[in-house]
Amino acid sequence: MVSTIYIEDSIRGHPRVERICSQFNKAQIVWCDQYTEVFNPKAQNFRLQKRNPALILAAKRDAFVMQVPSNYGLGGEQNYYFSHMLNCIYDCRYCFLQGMFRSAHYLLFINYDDFSTAITSILSDRGSGKPAWFFSGYDCDSLAYEPVTRFAQYFVPFFGARSDACLELRTKSTQIRCLLTQEPFPNVIAAFSFTPPDIAKALEHRVPSVQSRVNAMQKLQRVGWNIGLRFDPLIYVHNYRQHYANLVKEVCSSIDVSRVHSVSLGSFRMPKDFFKTIVKLYPHSPLYAGPVELGADGLMAYADDIKDEMLQYVTDLLLQWIPHAKLFNHEQEQNAISAKKYGLM
Ligand code: SF4
């Protein structure tokens, strides 16, 4: 439960602000000029804040939509991402957000209309061609905070009405009510991320169980939504083969794999500076004691032999269920995104 809400003065009275405040009617409201006063100061302890994060409501003023490398994605020629929220209500030990942001507070940009105007402008400038892809789950989980953000409630119909764009909602949550209560759109993909249950128990705190995510996918498929599977990051443990064999079987045997839109995978990797920050926050996490090393691309990742073997093994498992054309290895592409986004290239 949020006990403090920081709000930028400039959005006082905005209907989305009023509605969110009424949902947290016991929260203390603190007005500020700019969210950066609260979110950016250096002397903050992410780990302590994560225990009781505040909510920050702000307006994004620029860089609404970012381009990702042309070879990234799910078969589209143009790929973009946009972030209505920074940070996440879950707490995954491998999450780069802990290393990227100084604050663990949830920062929500409430000016959705400005995002949709920016998306419309990009689409009208680009001319014809295959639909462009928009990825919404880079700096947060797309659906986990839906009861507060109503992000999908706004953006799913927006994308659903367009034939020139596709939206990926990337999530580990079971917040699917907003999808179940509207018609399915073929260009909106609910993509669920998975890690084997024992590894998830150790590294993914507050995240719904694998079984409940599978149940959510089943419900969505039943009413016609496109779903995607994401096995990213793959986490190495000495008996990872057994863990991933069980996971792939559990997930793929429980859904209609013939109607899965896409499957992607990539192994654990993270910019070096983020990695160093997170090790200081969680020095005893088994993840950071594992066989991780600095690569030539400036990212901390598993040694090539481990990484290649894991990717090949899980790819082979998935190919027993999914045709090759639906399988995307995001290893190279996401490295490029991370490196570019965080000034490493
Ligand atoms: S669900 Fe995703 S965004 Fe949220 S903490 Fe885990 S890895 Fe980070």
Instruction: Indicate the CATH topology.
Output: pyruvate-formate lyase- activating enzyme
Largest sheet strand order = 4-5-9-10-11-13-14-18
Bound ions, cofactors and other small molecules, one mention each: iron/sulfur cluster
Number of helices: 14
Global outline: globular
Strand tally: 18
By CATH, the architecture is named Alpha-Beta Horseshoe
**Percentage of helical residues?**
25-40%
Strand content: 15-25%
Description:
Helix 11 runs parallel beside helix 13. The chain has helices spanning 15-23, 36-39, 46-51, 97-100, 112-125, 146-149, 151-160, 177-180, 197-203, 210-222, 240-252, 272-281, 304-319, 331-341; strands at residues 4-8, 28-32, 55-58, 66-67, 79-81, 85-86, 91-92, 106-109, 132-135, 165-171, 188-193, 204-205, 226-234, 260-267, 269-271, 292-294, 299-302, 327-329. The chain is globular and about 55 Å long. Strand 1, helix 1 and strand 2 form a beta-alpha-beta unit. It has one domain (59-87, 110-341): pyruvate-formate lyase- activating enzyme, CATH 3.80.30.30. The model is unreliable at 335-340 (pLDDT under 50). The chain starts with a strand and ends with a helix. The strands form four sheets. An eight-stranded mixed β-sheet has the order 4-5-9-10-11-13-14-18. The protein is of the alpha/beta class and 345 residues long. It is built from 14 helices and 18 strands. The structure holds iron/sulfur cluster (SF4).
Layout: helices, strands, pairs:
Layout: E1 4-8, H1 15-23, E2 28-32, H2 36-39, H3 46-51, E3 55-58, E4 66-67, E5 79-81, E6 85-86, E7 91-92, H4 97-100, E8 106-109, H5 112-125, E9 132-135, H6 146-149, H7 151-160, E10 165-171, H8 177-180, E11 188-193, H9 197-203, E12 204-205, H10 210-222, E13 226-234, H11 240-252, E14 260-267, E15 269-271, H12 272-281, E16 292-294, E17 299-302, H13 304-319, E18 327-329, H14 331-341
Parallel strand pairs: 1-2, 1-3, 3-8, 5-9, 9-10, 10-11, 11-13, 13-14, 14-18
Antiparallel strand pairs: 4-5, 6-8, 7-12, 15-17, 16-17
The structure holds iron/sulfur cluster.
Iron/sulfur cluster binds at residues 88, 90-92, 95, 97, 140-141, 172.
